[in-house]
Amino acid sequence: MIAVVSIGPIERSLVEGVVDSVRNYYSRFGISVEFVGEVPAEPFSVAFNARRNQYLGRVFLPTLSALREELGAVAILGITELDLYEEGLNFVFGLANPSLRSAIVSVQRLRNEFYGLEPDDTLLLERTVKEAMHELGHVFGLKHCPNPRCVMHFSNSLLDTDAKGPLYCPRCEEKLEENLRKLGVLS
Questions:
Q1: Active site (catalytic) residues
Q2: What is the structure's pLDDT at 119?
Q3: Which residues contact 131 (CB under 8 A, 6 or more apart)?
Q4: 59 assigned binding-site residue
Q5: CA distance 13 to 150
Q6: Which residues of 143-170 are buried (b: 16+ CB within 10 A; e: fewer)?
């Protein structure tokens, strides 16, 4: 199972849409995807950088990994409203750690409203699904892909996210299947 949690409050319809899309893809490998609930954001306050008004993304991953182990899940994905960054970067849409088999996606900068535009729930769901699939690809050992349509293509901006597709290219999908076999998820 891939466990999905929200970190802090987030629209249930958005989380369910992501779960459904990720489940539709990963079910081909016999992997279920389940929303397992909301995790409070308060314990992650240690990740908050007041100067930046952002949260250091990597701080979330060990806690998510511990929850993954507790649940017996093959991977875990956190979805949050909190604005994330990594050292040397202004922001990140998401982050993953393959050895912890945990990932997090922030919807903060995926929302049109962040840029002063009208809300678009359909576009927000598409963007969040792409980032979820991208980070789960990293969890399962995939690297960034040079194919700009592949979901594993690096997103330096929202334009990159909008331009790429929601699925892995054939080369990345082949590598994903190989990696899932190595993990013992596939026989």
A1: 135
A2: 97
A3: 93, 94, 105, 110, 155, 161
A4: no
A5: 25
A6: eebebeebbbbebeebeebeebebbbbe
Ligand-binding site membership of 153 (annotated): no
Residue ranges of the chain whose pLDDT lies below 70: 187
C-beta separation of 5 from 80 below 8 A: no
**Inter-residue contact 66 to 59 (CB < 8 Å):** no
Question: Any known ligand binding at 169?
Answer: yes
Neighbours of 119 (CB within 10 A): 9
| CATH T-level assignment (fold) for domain 2-142 | Collagenase (Catalytic Domain) (3.40.390)
What pLDDT is recorded for position 184? 86
Q: Is 150 annotated as a binding residue?
A: yes
The one-character DSSP state at 33 is: E
Q: What is the pLDDT of residue 187?
A: 62
The residue written with tokens 């979805």 in the block is: 79
Within the chain, residue ranges assigned H as helices are 12-26, 60-71, 121-139, 158-163, 170-182
pLDDT for residue 135: 98
Q: Where are the domains of the chain?
A: 2-142
